[in-house]
Structures are given as structure tokens and as C-alpha cells.
Amino acid sequence: AKMQHMLDRLVSDEIVPQRSVMAQPIWRSGYPATIRDDTFDSMLEQGMATQSGEGQFGFGEPFIALTSHLDSLFQAAAQRSFGALEQQYPSLIPTEVLARSGYLASFPQFLVFAGRLHGELDSYKDFVEQVSGPTAAEDAGATVSRAVADHSTHLGYTLSPAVCYHVYEQRAGKCLDADLVSVTARGRCFRHESRYHRSLERLWEFTMREVVFIGSDDHVTDARSSFMREVFAIVEELGLAGHAETASDPFFCNARTAEKIWTQRLMQLKYELILPVAGGRSVAAVSFNAHGSALGEAFSIRTPDGEIAHTGCVAFGLERFAYAFVCQHGLHPSGWPVSVRNSVAASQSRRGE
Ligand code: ATP
Ligand code: ZN
Ligand code: MG
Q1: Given a cut of 70, is residue 301 above it in pLDDT?
Q2: Does residue 212's CB lie within 6 angstroms of at least one atom of ligand 1?
């Protein structure tokens, strides 16, 4: 437990500041922030959010309809501008894919591996005995955890921490048929964070909409910047306060990754859209990432010219974005911009029919 605590401290943003160091705002919304500090408590009271565990929530209306509407705005923008191909992927991803992409070594602290009991009769028998033994009644949780640890094995799959690794894997060893390929998908993501505030800012299980670009260096670079402008326009249409700045990832801290953090910041490989939320805090709701040729290389993806492909991705945290929206506009649709209110009303009446 002590080791765990030290590890959590090491990787927490108190030690590796993800923001504030060298942060240069590159864009700022014209809207001032009006924040309702009781948003999270009101959501719980009204049953609009129900907690099922640390960083794990279920949601009710109109939060569900709001999240879908926001998602459809991002998806439509990607489809309109890049003809992005809609895809769906499983929540599990082969652990080998995360190893190949470098994720395993860079972010071990987030990972939640899929396991199951050893597939032998003896092992099942032992397990059943252990969980139904005399101690099981007193400390059910601890006994079951011990039994699971004693008898399980890694299955070679991990609960996916992001959506885009599926996209690279799908094209591994292939040659692209265009200078720019764009794919978009919405998926459940899992990250075991070192701590969870009493809010919807940081979740263990959350939903991401990703827009992925694969192609030549120029095409990917241009796509990321033009899409960034489009997202800023959407934020203004939504009447939200916020800004964008350069950022870096919460790499697991060692000598090798410390260098990565500075490279990422200096080369502006990552931008984040930051939205103010309750409690005087602000969160990254969208990240705009450039990976150079690192993933093209790792997955042997080539452009039509035979060059190693460059990649980039734009990732929307849907619960986070929607939470920032209700912190700023309130929980009742009557306080929302007309277009959002209409879309939410339409989806609710469709469901009511
Ligand atoms: P942060 O800076 O807040 O730690 P990140 O840089 O780790 O986020 P990315 O890896 O860029 O985030 O993920 C893309 C988006 O997914 C984020 O901008 C955010 O909106 C969302 N996201 C990431 N982690 C979480 C989480 N634990 N809970 C909810 N949303 C998350
Ligand atoms: Zn991504
Ligand atoms: Mg970040």
C-alpha cells in the first residue's frame, strides 16, 4: 500500500505538472464563465447521475440527450470536413497492440487488464471453495479478491484506455488508398486514475469520441489544425467559456519519459481545449494530438507514395464536455442555447413515442 501511494504521488500531476508550466493559450472563447458550483450535487439529487463505484457513474435525462447531441456535433464536423468513416470497436483491445504503440510503457498506471480464472477444473473447484469458505461471510470483498488473485490469469486483452489504437491496428502492414484517411469512432474507455474528485471531471470508465487522421505529414498536420479551428467554432456556438493551450501527457515518470514530456511541449504535439467547471477548476475536454511517424512506424502503415504514414487524433471526453456544459449553462434545458434545447427535446419526444 505504501509503494502504491508513492507511485500514485509520482504520477500525479502535483509532481508532473500537466498544465501551468509553459502553457501558452492559443485561443480563447469570447464567452465569460458563469459557473454553478452545486452542479454535481444537484445531478445526484435529481438522479441525473448515479454513482456505482469510484469514478463510475450512470446517467439519466437530459444529460444523456445532451451527451449524444454534443457527440453528433463533433462527428458531423469530422464527416463534413474529412469524410471521416464511422467505425465501432470493442471495449477490449489486445494488450500486444498497446505494447506495440508504446502505451504500455508510457502509461502503466492507467491500465486495467482483463483476467479470468485458470481454465482447469481444479482451479474452479479451489476458487469456489475459497469464496464459499467460512471467512467469506465476514469479509466477502477481501476473500473474493484473494481468490481471484490466486486463480486468475491475464487473457491478453486490456480494457481500452483510448479509441484510436484500434484504428492503427486495423491498418497495420497496409498501404493507405488516399493521402489522408480519416476515421471516427465513439467508444468506452477505462483509466485507473490516481484520484477522483467529487465530480464528473475524472472517471474510471468514460466515453470518448475520437477522430483519427492517417496520411502524409502535411495532410495530417493540416487536418489537425483545421479541425481544431472547427472545434473552437463549435465551442463558441455552444456559448461556452474556455481556452486552448499546449499540453503534455501524464507519462509514467522516469528518465526516458521526462524527455518525452519536454519534446511534446516544445514541439506542440498536444493541444488541449480547457473548459472551466465548478469549484474554481478547469478540465481538458478535448485533446488534439500529433504523433509524427511514431505510430505509422510501429504499425507499418504506408502512404500511397510508400512513405511511413504520419498520424494524429482528436479526442473528445464526452462526459467531461457535457459536465462542463451543465456547470456553465445549468441542468435545465431552458437555460441552454436554442439549437441544443431543440435537439434534446426532439430526441426525448422520439423516445417517448
Ligand atoms: P487530463 O489532462 O485531464 O489528464 P489526458 O491528457 O490524459 O487528460 P487524453 O489522453 O488526451 O487526456 O484523452 C482525451 C480526452 O478524454 C481528454 O481531453 C478528456 O476529455 C477525456 N478523458 C481523459 N481521461 C479521462 C478520465 N479519466 N475521465 C473522463 N474523461 C477523460
Ligand atoms: Zn487518440
Ligand atoms: Mg492532459
Answers
A1: yes
A2: no
Q: Is 307 in the pocket of ligand 1 (CB under 6 A)?
A: no
- Residues with Cβ within 5 Å of ion ligand 2? 162, 164, 313, 315
DSSP state of 308: B
Picking from 136, 147, 129, 106, the residue whose alpha carbon sits closest to that of residue 270 is 106
Q: How many angstroms is it from 123 CA to the middle of ligand 2?
A: 39
Q: By C-alpha distance, which of 225, 196, 239, 215 is closest to 326?
A: 239
| CA pair distance 278, 37, nearest whole angstrom | 5
Write down the pLDDT at residue 58: 98
CA–CA dist 189, 346 (Å, integer): 28
Q: Cell match 522516469: residue?
A: 254
Cα torsion 324, 327, 332, 333 to 10°: value is -40
- Is 208 in a helix, a strand, or coil? strand
Atom 6, ligand 1: which residue's CA is nearest? 249
Q: How many Å lie between the centroid of ligand 3 and the Cα of residue 124?
A: 42
Q: Is the ipTM of this complex over 0.90?
A: yes
Q: Sorting pLDDT into bands at 50, 70 and 90, what band is 14?
A: very low
Quote the pTM value. Answer: 0.92
What residues have CB less than 8 Å from 139, skipping those under 6 apart?
none
**pLDDT value for 197:** 85
Torsion, Cα of 29, 30, 34, 39 (10° steps): -30
**Distance from the alpha carbon of residue 133 to the mean position of ligand 1, in angstroms:** 42
Residue 2 has pLDDT above 60, yes or no: no
Cβ neighbours of residue 169 under 8 Å, at least 6 residues apart?
93, 94, 97, 299
- The string of pLDDT tens digits covering residues 40-75 is 999 999 999 999 999 999 999 999 999 999 999 999
DSSP-based helix, strand, coil % in the chain, nearest 5:
45, 25, 30
Relative to beta strand 243-246, strand 25-28 is antiparallel
- CA–CA dist 328, 116 (Å, integer): 43
Which pLDDT belongs to residue 263? 79
Which three cell numbers mark 228? 481544431
